[in-house]
Amino acid sequence: MLIRELLGIPMPAGQRLDINSGVARLSGKIWATLWRDDRRTPTTAVLIVHPASNFLGHYALSDLAERGVAAVGLCTRYVGNDSALIMENCVLDIGAAIAHLHRLGYSEIVLVGNSGGGGLAALYQEQAENPTITETPAGDPVDLAGAGLIPADRLVMAMAHPGRATVYTEGLDPAIVDEQDPFGRDPGLDMFDPQHGPPYPAEFVQRYRAAQIARNERISGWAFERLTQLTKLDRPGPDDLPFVVHGTAADLRFTDLTLDPSDRRAGTLWGDPWTANTQPASLGHLTSLRSWLSQWSHTHSRANAYQRLRGVSAPVMVVYGSADCAAFPSHARGMYDAVRHDRRELVEIAGADHYFQGTPELAARMCDHIVEWST
């Protein structure tokens, strides 16, 4: 029989007020659920992570537990609210969870970065194996190098993209010319203007991608300038500010299926691309200056699996779905190619979309791969 436990894990202290809820701050805990089969005594725990998603009810937990491992879904301190999220603090939260699982008697830890957890899991493992980071991109102290992070024994990138900053930049709308107005647009860079496609010509794709990076870097430069201005206020005041980013679901692959070909359908995780591009529930519209640099900045965010996996010595499995419209085949191949040893595996789940909607048998197949590879 499967049983479920709620784990209250001591939360490493943060350096600033970045959690709105006083209840959450004062509890001093992050939370996870642990599933296991009470007829077995597993020694392996599979820990599934994401920077901000609530994984207490993750779809893979019961399937994994049925296969004889302890399955753990983690919530970081930023669960449900990434507007002030600092990736380096999420690394500390994973470290606290792994240490807690060792205290519970689990000797083998498989770290699974799911969806937006891919870049975070890669950053964690690289820093646990080769700790170097002592401050955030904004310059705030965060001593990953001295945190005593325990490396996971294996790493899985499951239905994952290489990192929030990477996929965010790939979806950043370069046609927006006024950061305050999503509808003041450059017609020469507007993917929603039918004169350009789809399908989109190679010249347009190249120009569009360069303009996306340029917009991201302009916002990063502005964020640094604003932080400097805050240090010059006449009176003590805030050291961070919130701001809005319009146009974050404008990846050309959402409408052009000839780019990064796969079995996916056109569209986004949030529906029609034009609507998703500006609706508040889609990706990363509200952020702070410091969070932008840590979480969304193309140049400054460290949670980039393409870069971090180069420094990982643990075995790495990359699992992707052929019908996924958020984590594309090139993401999976790029992460697999970044691993610099031969203890790696690339697995395609044919027909699987990002959340295995309506296909629980395909989710079970992913869990089969993870457990068979972990034992």
From TrEMBL:
Keywords: Hydrolase. Gene3D superfamilies: alpha/beta hydrolase. GO terms for molecular function: hydrolase activity. InterPro entries: AB_hydrolase_fold (IPR029058). This is Alpha/beta hydrolase family protein. It comes from Pseudonocardia autotrophica (Amycolata autotrophica).
